[in-house]
Amino acid sequence: MSKVITIAVDAMGGDNSPKKVVDGINFHHQNNKDVFYKIFGNSEIINKIIPKTLSVNSFEIIHTEDEGKGTDSALSAAKRGKQTSMWLAIESVKNKHSDIVVSAGNTGALFVIAKLNLKMIESIDKPALSGLWPNKTGTNIVLDLGANIDCSEKNLIDFSLMGSALFKALFPNEEARVALLNIGSEELKGTEMIKTTYKTLSNQSNKIYTFKGYIEGNEMMNGDVNVIVTDGFTGNVALKTAEGTANFITSELKKAMTGNLFGKIASIINLKNINNFKKRLDPRLYNGGIFLGLDSPVVKSHGSTDFIGFANSLGLCKKIVSGKLIDKIKQSID
């Protein structure tokens, strides 16, 4: 019998919470009976919306009426005190009562409170925010997506290790292939920091990944590599650009397929292909950013996602714990 995985859930963070969080837990639980959910939030509200299909043995509600606000700055959210649902959920992981924590609350607040409560992995200088992106053949891990605006050569090398460990935890049968995001593929292009990192990675071998050199922004979805490393400034710009492009493509496709009679007929004929296309770009499938570098795993669900997206972030949590992410990071450093 497999070990039960315990997920600490901040039920009060993000849009339409705790409703979407509870519905996401229920949706996830239907096919994941080996997961136990510690739900942190207002029990009076949560108990009213717990569905009958959610087994009473699969969850525990830890009551608190304090919660962070989406409008809080990272610092003001931390100052709200140690009884907010986010703080208590992270503390549950700190005290080894839970294996992993997930929240759809304020990203900055989650980052600060996690850093206040959780230790860094030894020899890692900075945590990084990583995310999952689709590519032509599977999935990319991209980091950093905004936690660190300024990065050193060591930071980028650490990100390569941590991103590859995450990839191997999620996809254990695939090879991690690392590339540095740059303005060109030639060795002489880029900042001095990027070029020195390139030389270091090119001249060293690592058991957890293969270094593939530079990658340009227009090649990120090709599938030739699957771990893409950059600083937080560039990574966040790339993330927002990719999100905007995906939204533009799907909205324009919808207009083309419903704008006139010919489009409607074409959409009916190609319904299966259109649905497959929409599913491939559905951001809910890739919901969940991961803070890497902390001694315990922390997952950030998108604040505006729905219950299906939140359920997918719970699925990510299970894969991270089952894949022994933290152990893989530590082993790659040795």
Structure annotation, total helices: 12
Total E-strand runs: 11
Task: Note the main sheet.
Answer: 11 strands, mixed
**Mean pLDDT score:** 88
State the helicity in percent bands.
Answer: 40-55%
Named CATH topology of the largest domain: Isopropylmalate Dehydrogenase
Secondary-structure element order, N to C: EHEHEHHEHEEHEHEEHHHEEHH
Describe this structure in words.
The chain has helices at residues 19-29, 43-49, 74-79, 85-94, 107-117, 153-170, 192-202, 232-258, 261-269, 271-280, 307-322, 325-333, and strands at 5-10, 35-41, 59-63, 100-103, 128-134, 139-143, 177-181, 210-215, 227-229, 289-292, 298-300. It is built from twelve helices and eleven strands. It has two domains: 1-120 and 307-323, Isopropylmalate Dehydrogenase; 125-292, Isopropylmalate Dehydrogenase (3-Layer(aba) Sandwich). With 334 residues, the protein is of the alpha/beta class. It is globular, with a radius of gyration of 21 Å. It has an eleven-stranded mixed sheet with strand order 3-2-1-4-11-10-5-6-9-7-8, with helices on both faces. Helix 2 links the parallel strand 2 (35-41) and strand 3 (59-63).
